[in-house]
């Protein structure tokens, strides 16, 4: 060997520079959807904490939602699109196998030729992608990474399904991650358990639909009580590990933002983590519903917009869902 | 040391009372969790989790739907201790 390679120059710290949100434009009430599942507004509220969910119209897809959220995140970060050199989109509801939603999004917002790719980590996708963005920025591989969790779950619902469809909404949440003078993103605690892959699932694969068109359009299902038990009593320990890894404790946390799956899961996690009563908890699910990869940034954006959280607050965020997958980290809010 | 059926019933009653706000003496073997005690499937999972911790047993998710009455749960936990 006669030459010595240069490697990317690392930077010490990273942080989230700005967050943007876009919710589906249609407000769907419990009464609107209760009929086909033989339910009621009261039952859905008691069971899930959801009052309305937001859904997008037929003319908007995942990239449209992502674009709107991304432009708001860029504005909040005070950056122009050409300063973005990497785009990561987490989605499970984009219709094309290829090319990626991220490449099209990057071009549409004016970030072409940023490196762009999609990831599939369901409701943990945003926290997965924040972990990747943190690593890319600190390694020197990227300077400004646009992370987007975007879902149009209303394309995968069955109005007669009582397991998950009535929870779901559409939206996109975006964050810009860049270099920082101070630590802004704690270590990501993440993992998966594919032995429980059928717990939250698509009714049948596209290949099965091709073999048997009578199966109809695939939609989502979950084993609700099993997911509730896992999320409420096992996932919390990963949030605790994320605090431990970041060197903070419950008393240092200003804001707790878990994936917005069900208000009763959120309540149980708060209890299990023994968070002090003054910790602000993201509860965007009440108005927006469960938007999978978008739910954590949407909940953070709401807290910031409504003044319940502020720039500099220490937030514990955790995503968990189909896979099963989970990811958690402590971040400083932009 | 295995718990007696009476100890399991008393322990379970405390867990149910904590989750639902019902008095412990309402939790008797012949009561149905769903029909009599108005416990939904999510609260049932919370109760099961606390019972697993309290009695050191494992109650598989697929078994929970078979625990119709308080007595069913007591019997299952008693058997699972062995």
UniProtKB/TrEMBL annotation, chain A:
NCBIfam families found in the cross-reference section: fabH (TIGR00747), PRK09352.1 (NF006829)
EC numbers for this chain: 2.3.1.180
Transmembrane segments: none
UniProt-listed HAMAP family: FabH (MF_01815)
Subunit structure: Homodimer.
SUPFAM superfamilies registered for this protein in UniProt: Thiolase-like
This protein's pathway: Lipid metabolism; fatty acid biosynthesis
Family named by the database record: Belongs to the thiolase-like superfamily. FabH family.
Annotated function: Catalyzes the condensation reaction of fatty acid synthesis by the addition to an acyl acceptor of two carbons from malonyl-ACP. Catalyzes the first condensation reaction which initiates fatty acid synthesis and may therefore play a role in governing the total rate of fatty acid production. Possesses both acetoacetyl-ACP synthase and acetyl transacylase activities. Its substrate specificity determines the biosynthesis of branched-chain and/or straight-chain of fatty acids.
Pfam families: ACP_syn_III, ACP_syn_III_C
GO MF annotations in UniProt: 3-oxoacyl-[acyl-carrier-protein] synthase activity; beta-ketoacyl-acyl-carrier-protein synthase III activity
Region annotation (ACP-binding) ranges: 260-264
Domain comment quoted from the record: The last Arg residue of the ACP-binding site is essential for the weak association between ACP/AcpP and FabH.
Domain Beta-ketoacyl-[acyl-carrier-protein] synthase III C-terminal: 243-331
Active site per the UniProt annotation: 123, 259, 290
GO biological process annotation, one example: fatty acid biosynthetic process
Reactions this protein catalyses: malonyl-[ACP] + acetyl-CoA + H(+) = 3-oxobutanoyl-[ACP] + CO2 + CoA
Naturally occurring in which organism (per UniProt): Xylanimonas oleitrophica
Name of the featured protein: Beta-ketoacyl-[acyl-carrier-protein] synthase III
Compartments where found: Cytoplasm
Primary location class: cytoplasm
Automatic annotation (TrEMBL), chain B:
Source species, domain of life: Bacteria
PTM (free text): 4'-phosphopantetheine is transferred from CoA to a specific serine of apo-ACP by AcpS. This modification is essential for activity because fatty acids are bound in thioester linkage to the sulfhydryl of the prosthetic group.
Modified residues (O-(pantetheine 4'-phosphoryl)serine): 41
Location of the Carrier domain: 6-81
Pfam families attached to this UniProt entry: PP-binding
Alphabetical keyword list: Cytoplasm, Fatty acid biosynthesis, Fatty acid metabolism, Lipid biosynthesis, Lipid metabolism, Phosphopantetheine, Phosphoprotein
Single GO MF descriptor: acyl binding
Pathway(s) of this molecule: Lipid metabolism; fatty acid biosynthesis
Location(s) in or outside the cell: Cytoplasm
Any one biological process term the GO annotation gives: lipid A biosynthetic process
Any Gene Ontology CC annotation: membrane
Record-stated family: Belongs to the acyl carrier protein (ACP) family.
Reported function: Carrier of the growing fatty acid chain in fatty acid biosynthesis.
HAMAP family: Acyl_carrier
Name the record gives this protein: Acyl carrier protein
Protein's organism: Xylanimonas oleitrophica
Taxonomic lineage of the native organism: Bacteria, Bacillati, Actinomycetota, Actinomycetes, Micrococcales
Gene: acpP
């Amino acid at each position: 060997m006669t030459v010595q390679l240069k490697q990317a120059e690392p930077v010490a710290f990273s942080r989230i520079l700005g967050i943007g949100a876009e919710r589906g434009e249609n407000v769907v009430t419990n009464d609107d959807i209760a009929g086909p599942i033989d339910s009621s507004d009261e039952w859905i509220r008691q069971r899930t904490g959801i009052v309305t969910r937001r859904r997008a119209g037929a003319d908007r897809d995942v990239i449209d939602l992502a674009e709107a959220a991304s432009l708001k995140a860029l504005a909040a970060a005070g950056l122009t699109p050409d300063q973005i050199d990497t785009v990561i989109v987490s989605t499970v509801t984009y219709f094309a196998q290829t090319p990626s939603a991220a490449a099209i999004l990057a071009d549409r917002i004016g970030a072409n030729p940023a490196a762009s790719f999609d990831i599939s980590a369901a409701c943990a996708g945003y926290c997965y992608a924040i972990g990747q963005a943190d690593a890319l920025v600190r390694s020197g591989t990227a300077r400004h990474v646009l992370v987007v969790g975007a879902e149009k779950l209303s394309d995968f619902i069955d109005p007669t399904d009582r397991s998950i469809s009535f929870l779901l909404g559409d939206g996109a949440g975006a964050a810009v991650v860049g270099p920082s003078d101070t630590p802004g993103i704690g270590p990501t605690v993440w993992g998966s358990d594919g032995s429980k892959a059928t717990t939250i699932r698509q009714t049948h694969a596209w290949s099965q639909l091709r073999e048997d068109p009578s199966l109809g359009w695939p939609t989502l299902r979950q084993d609700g009580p099993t997911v509730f038990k896992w999320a409420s009593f096992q996932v919390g320990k990963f949030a605790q590990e994320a605090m431990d890894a970041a060197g903070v404790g419950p008393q240092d946390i200003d804001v707790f933002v878990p994936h917005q799956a069900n208000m009763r899961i959120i309540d149980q996690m708060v209890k299990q983590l023994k968070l002090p009563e003054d910790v602000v908890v993201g509860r965007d699910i009440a108005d927006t519903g469960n938007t999978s990869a978008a739910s954590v940034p949407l909940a953070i954006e709401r807290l910031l917009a409504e003044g319940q959280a502020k720039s500099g607050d220490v937030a514990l965020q955790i995503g968990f869902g189909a896979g099963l997958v989970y990811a958690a980290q402590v971040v400083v809010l932009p | 040391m295995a718990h007696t059926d009476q100890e399991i019933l008393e322990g379970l009653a405390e867990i149910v009372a904590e989750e639902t706000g019902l008095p412990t003496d309402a939790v008797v073997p012949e009561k149905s969790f769903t029909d009599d005690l108005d416990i939904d499937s999510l609260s049932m999972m919370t109760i099961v989790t606390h019972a697993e911790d309290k009695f050191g047993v494992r109650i598989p998710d697929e078994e929970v739907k078979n625990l119709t009455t308080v007595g069913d749960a007591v019997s299952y936990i008693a058997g699972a201790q062995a």
